Amino acid sequence: MRLPVLLLSIFCGFGLYGQSLIKGRIVSAENRKPLPYAKIQISEDRQVLSNIDGSFQFFLDEGSKKINISYIGYQTLTTTVGRATQFLEVALRPKYEQLETVMIPLENSADVIIKKAIAAKAKNDPKKALNGFHYKSYSKFIIDNQDALLQMKADSTAAAMEIVLNEGRAYLSEKVSEHFYSKSGGEQEKVIGMETAGFKKPIYNILFMSINPFSLYDESYQLYKTEYAGPLAKNAFKNYDYRIIDTTETEKPAYVVYFKPKREKVVAGLEGILYLDTQTYAIQKAKAQLLGAIRLEVNHEYEYFPEKKLWFPVSQTTTIQPGTGGKEVAVFGGTIGLGTVQQKPGVVSTIFGSEKISKNLYLNSTEKYYDISLEPATENPVKNASVYIPEEALKKDSIFWQQNRQMEYTQRDQAASKIVDSIIEAGNVKRKLQIQNTMTTGYYPWGYWDVDLTKIFKFSNYEGIRLGFGGKTSDQVSSHFNLNGYTTYGFKDKVWKYGIGTQIYLDDRSDTRLNFYFSRDIQETGSFKYLKGRRTFYILQPRFVNINFYYNYKTYWTSLEHNFAPGLTTEFRISREDIWQIRDYSFQKNDKTYSDYRLGEATISFFWRPFSEFVSTPQGSRLIERHFPQFTGQIEHSFKGFFGGDFNFTRIGLKIEHAIKQIDQSTTEFILEGNIGFGDLPLTHSFHAYPNSPNREKILKRFAVGGNNSFETMYFNEFFSDRLVMLHIRHQFRPFKIGENFQPELVLVSRHAIGDMEHLERHQGIQFNTLEQGYSEFGMELNKIFSGFGLSAAYRYGAYHLPTFTQNLALIFTLQLQL
């Protein structure tokens, strides 16, 4: 297998034999500063532009060639390059005479042109100018070895081809899609075919990132996980400087406008050029770059459609290569620096099977648009999801790809598809991806068993050290069901807790699951757990340490989970729960006292993210991009007599989460939650506001770790309610970029709660207050002082203000660690 591929690659290399790679740099002769986007005219129909650092490179087919190098405001230079040219540094001299050749009217300065382009966005942006449109796209995504690629172009020897095979392309995927847009429904995509070399199943978290953003007209420009200020945003002049560097001499001439960030420490920005139509001020073409820890380059191409008098995008290419240090850009949830993934390793580090390959990172994503119609589609096959992948899209043959590829599928691509299997196998890539996917939900894959990391270790003042083991069977056991369970032991309370159950997979695409479960454990009094919502794995659960009011329970339940849409997950559960007290508490009803009781309950819960983007795959829905607001709700009813239940009551909870993220990396978050209970509601099933202050007199003994949306100055067991509303407002300022590894974040927090409780006399054995006068606290956090650790302080004020200063003050450690 290796020999034919090697011979094929060597044969391909002969076509490149004799080419010379010319590299160089263009600077100003006055101050040696680089000249970005200088024009190198190689022939009448071939030219290249310098990068933002003045560098350039091109292949020379002939023995020698005269080239012209020009830049607005500088004298054009003509020089000869040939095979002996190893590096060409060109210093252009300024020319001070009037620049009449550019033919730009005096009033059309760069700022005036940009203002007109911003004002004309409603006519030029396809999403605003059209009621709808649809088109097809072909995309090819490659992670490659840059050194091997250049060596292949420069040298066709067998030794060079061996390098290409052994250390070359490490990832290759292709995708063909239909795209639909309407003003009412937004953007949607149906994948017609997709293939990932080396993987039987596609790597969805790579294929559906924001690699190729559709439009440069938006207020922000998202590339991978980084938001950049849009060069044509409403506040563009606040973030960019502009300069005209050329005009084109085409049938539809364009101003070539250079843009450069002016607030890089505050707002992320790209540096590049816009080709703006001289008549309509629409984008004809664009190029953006970022140099630093990486070299990032994005190229947009547009085509003119005369029937709509509109320029529409037809292709985009994004390239990432190792840089020289400095700026960093988030990629796959991590950052690329010096050619390797740093800080939070993401998929890129997983794909590369060896350190040697990752040091020569070369990533390229190209997307071509075709069969473009600027009218709304008469029929849109995509329902509910932003991206829909039918089962048949994963089973396309070679004929399909030959018919639908919109760019050359090179011999190198063919060689790559044959060798990626061995690279993936050698680098144990599938195992790394398996670990990454399960770890984000709190599990670690271990053969036939996915270990539940939340069950291994906990500590609290009540249980002491709590050690255990739990998890579920993996897909290696069965793809139709899992067996799951746990067992733990508290060394202080000396009690075993355990659970066992099964989950049957009824339908993967809608994530329909049938569950059966039994458990015996303890639960915090007054807590309200939503069945649906994000399963978040916390390395440390701070509130858990100081909770001291629990009750015992033993429960049997069955539930049905179903996604009515990718953004709407639901669960319906029926259960029988036996409860007995740990502390001296009893509930009175009709002159009868209950310390132990049984509940027969039915619960319906939902988690709704209407504005987030999802991909619907045959294996289930996956989140592409989270947007706000999002809603979590639950209705729970206990029936007297159902499964022998003693009480009749209802509990309702609704939580609304919203976040406003600014381009300067500051974020404002809001969480509004309301709970109400009515009927024969025991204290175990009432509500608290998630207090997090231990009941100790001295402030240093109350020093705790900050909770997640908890009231830091509220003492445990101080308040309980059967009607409760909570509001959390959190504003995080942009990070203080003091050093490369020291970027603390200042956060201001305001929390408020109001509640009440009827029939206080029913609750015996414990004293507590109600919240009918409203509770307020203000906090300040300085996070990430050292690694994920920080410090915080909060102060209680208002109606429940306590007599002394220290009673109202809480000092807290903060901890922000992510997997």
Automatic annotation (TrEMBL):
<dbReference type="Pfam" id="PF13715">
    <property type="entry name" value="CarbopepD_reg_2"/>
</dbReference>
<keyword id="KW-0645">Protease</keyword>
<dbReference type="Pfam" id="PF18939">
    <property type="entry name" value="DUF5686"/>
</dbReference>
<keyword id="KW-0121">Carboxypeptidase</keyword>
<dbReference type="InterPro" id="IPR008969">
    <property type="entry name" value="CarboxyPept-like_regulatory"/>
</dbReference>
<protein>
    <submittedName>
        <fullName>Carboxypeptidase</fullName>
    </submittedName>
</protein>
<keyword id="KW-0378">Hydrolase</keyword>
<dbReference type="GO" id="GO:0004180">
    <property type="term" value="F:carboxypeptidase activity"/>
</dbReference>
<dbReference type="InterPro" id="IPR043741">
    <property type="entry name" value="DUF5686"/>
</dbReference>
